[in-house]
Amino acid sequence: MKAKVYISLKKGILDPQGKAVERALATLGFSGVEGVRIGKYLEVELKPQEAETASQSVKEMCEKLLANTVIETYRYELEPD
After folding, report:
1. Measuring CA to CA, which residue among 47, 41, 31 is closest to residue 67?
2. How many domains does the chain have?
3. 51: domain range?
4. Does the pTM exceed 0.85?
5. Could you tell me the CATH number of the domain that includes residue 31?
6. Distance between CA atoms of 56 and 6, rounded to whole angstroms?
7. pLDDT tens for the 81 residues of the chain, in order
8. 40 CB contacts (<8 Å, ≥6 apart)?
């Protein structure tokens, strides 16, 4: 089973990397860009297990290590093998 984890900064949290990309896009002539937010994407391979058990494990991974829940939000999808 594979877990796809998407992590991004919460609204209201300053994103200097996103602002730098936004400015660079404007410099390259992409004038229609009004905002860029940078995030993280992870794929975690899990041993075969029940979907409910896998979901709980991935949630714990995110809460304990993968995401800083003070400033980041996360979501995940599980894909069976």
Report:
1. 41
2. 1
3. 2-79
4. yes
5. 3.30.1280.10
6. 16
7. 999 999 999 999 999 999 999 999 999 999 999 999 999 999 999 999 999 999 999 999 999 999 999 999 999 999 997
8. 5, 6, 7, 8
